[in-house]
Amino acid sequence: MSYGSVDEALAAYKKMHRALLTSTASRWRDLDISMRELRAIYLLRDEEVATVGRLAELFGIGLPAASVLADRLVRAGYVERREDTADRRRVLLTLTRAGVLLVTELREGSHQHLRRWMSQLSPEDLAALTRGWRSLAEVASHRHQPVESKAI
């Protein structure tokens, strides 16, 4: 039994990826924020609470630019500013419910589509997919090792 080539596997992956992009495109298309703003939202999701100074540090920008970035996200309704009760000079930033919902929709929307599609596979195909992804994850987890190329 032939399992196909790497090129065939990549072609199948690309077809699935295109379907995934098509199914989530409307949410991304309707998103009216910059890439930097989106990165800041994801950063705040990971950090939970951050100061404007921390935002500046993580983005490698000055405090005024970080403050402007935070202001835009506050105006958009994704971030909330509040004073630090321990140090009133510091401003704390946290995601609002809308910010958390946005991150969840963008990240989990793709997972929901994949879950629905995978649930339609036969048990055998799902087991084969799981084995393949586990194997690929194992190879990817050793990415720090140099890849040897074969001369053609």
Could you please describe the fold and organization of this structure?
The structure is a single chain. The protein is mainly alpha-helical and 152 residues long. The chain has a single domain, classed as Orthogonal Bundle (Arc Repressor Mutant, subunit A). Helices cover 66% and strands 8% of the residues. Strand 2 and strand 3 form a beta hairpin. Helix 1 packs antiparallel against helix 5 and helix 3 crosses helix 4. The longest helix is centred in the first third of the chain and has 24 residues. The two termini are 26 Å apart. 11% of the residues are buried.
In which order are the strands of the major sheet placed? 1-3-2
Number of helices: 6
How does CATH name the architecture? Answer: Orthogonal Bundle
Mean pLDDT: 87
Low-confidence stretches: none
Give a quick summary of the entry.
The chain is mostly helical.
Q: What topology does this entry show?
A:
Blueprint lengths: L5 H24 L5 H13 L2 E2 H8 L3 H14 L2 E5 L7 E5 L1 H23 L3 H19 L11
Antiparallel strand pairs: 1-3, 2-3
Tag the structure with descriptive keywords.
152 residues; mainly alpha; Arc Repressor Mutant, subunit A; three-stranded antiparallel sheet; 6 helices; 8% strand
